[in-house]
Design a protein that fits this description.
By secondary structure, the protein is mainly α. The protein contains 4 helices and no strands. The longest helix is centred in the N-terminal third of the chain and has 29 residues, at 3-31.
Length: 96
């Protein structure tokens, strides 16, 4: 490992460490359905998406319904296939 790689890793680790508290707090407020500073921007978009999808945002999805939606929907398979194809083109193994 070269020095530049170690510096990059240290910077990455520092950035992640600095972001843990604010991002974790934001996610806790989002999942707790508390008000956040992005609500005025994102809530109208969320309402439009729910209206188009015909779903109720307050309706809880049970595990069976979630599993059926995952199996029936081709999107996860398409995403996985696309991600695998994209990654196989990016990663070429260790440099020789």
């Amino acid at each position: 490992m070269k020095w530049l790689d170690l510096i990059r890793f240290a910077v990455f680790l520092g950035v992640v460490t600095l972001l843990v508290k604010p991002v974790g707090g934001y996610l806790a407020r989002v999942f707790g359905r508390e008000r956040t500073w992005l609500d005025p921007i994102l809530l109208p978009v969320e309402r439009v998406v729910h209206r188009i999808a015909g779903s109720d945002p307050d309706d809880e999805m049970e595990w069976g319904r979630y599993a059926a939606a995952f199996v029936i929907s081709p999107r996860p398979a398409r995403f996985s296939f696309t991600a695998c194809c994209a990654c196989s083109g990016c990663y070429r193994g260790p440099a020789r």
